[in-house]
Amino acid sequence: AQSVAQPEDQVNVAEGNPLTVKCTYSVSGNPYLFWYVQYPNRGLQFLLKYITGDNLVKGSYGFEAEFNKSQTSFHLKKPSALVSDSALYFCAVYRRGGGSQGNLIFGKGTKLSVKP
Amino acid sequence: DTAVSQTPKYLVTQMGNDKSIKCEQNLGHDTMYWYKQDSKKFLKIMFSYNNKELIINETVPNRFSPKSPDKAHLNLHINSLELGDSAVYFCASSQTGGETDTQYFGPGTRLTVL
After folding, report:
1. Cα(A66)–Cα(B41) distance, integer angstroms
2. Which of B51, B96, B57 has its CA nearest to residue B74?
3. Which of A6-10, B1-5, B26-30, B44-48 has the lowest mean pLDDT?
4. How far is B108 from chain A (nearest CA, A)?
5. I need a surface site. Which of A17, B1, B70, B71 has the fewest CB within 10 A?
6. Of B31, B40, B97, nearest to A88 (Cα)?
7. How many CB pairs under 8 A join A and B?
8. Which residues from chain A sit within 8 angstroms of residue B33, using beta carbons?
9. Which residues in chain A have their CB less than 8 angstroms from residue B96's CB?
């Protein structure tokens, strides 16, 4: 069964410092991995995805993620955190269904808190 | 110009009632989904439709019935509401193609069953 794990319930970072939100995955075959962000009382917004190719994926709002096959990880990173980055972050893996259909399997989410 | 929209945004109702949530996407996508986010923020797929056909039906009580009148709309009807149905329900859409597809989410409908 395909799954993702986000080992941290919460990550606290000072504004201006680099941030990392961790995600590890368990899949059979090549993983298709995603990061989404959920601001308070809002829907999920797509940040970035890894399908194939370069292990460093760049996404929206200055975020990037590094795919590491040997460690089965897909950590989300940003060089300099902003207070406005404070939100709930979800890692997800694409579960293939019949034909080309599938759905996302989400981690439990990590709350990022960036303090001024 | 909202890509994926849901109505209503909030829904408060009594146990035993029947209610519907509507979802519309203007992205031209051919696949739509319903996800449930529980009180601990855990997200789980409920249903997906491709071109009006049911593709995914996870272990969801048959009190939940999705309906897709066309590929731009996916509604969720819930019969005999229970306290445990209280959650945020998210609609999403994607375009099938290539090896995977990015899903775009609506703002969510917060359902509270009293």
Report:
1. 25
2. B51
3. B1-5
4. 6
5. B1
6. B40
7. 60
8. 103
9. 100-101
- Return mean pLDDT, chain B: 91
Residue found by looking up tokens 């090549």 in the block:
A30
CB spacing of B105 vs A43 below 8 angstroms: yes
- The average confidence (pLDDT) of chain A is 92
pLDDT digits (tens, 9 = 90+) for B71-98: 899 999 999 999 999 999 999 999 887 5
Residues of A with CB below 8 A from B42's CB? 106, 108-109
What is the tens place of the pLDDT at every residue in A16-39? 999 999 999 998 888 899 999 999
Place of tokens 């269904």: A97
Express each pLDDT in B2-28 by its tens digit: 699 999 999 999 999 999 999 999 999
pLDDT of B1: 60
Between strands B53-57 and B4-7, the pairing is unpaired
What's the gap in Å between the CA of A40 and the closest CA on chain B? 11
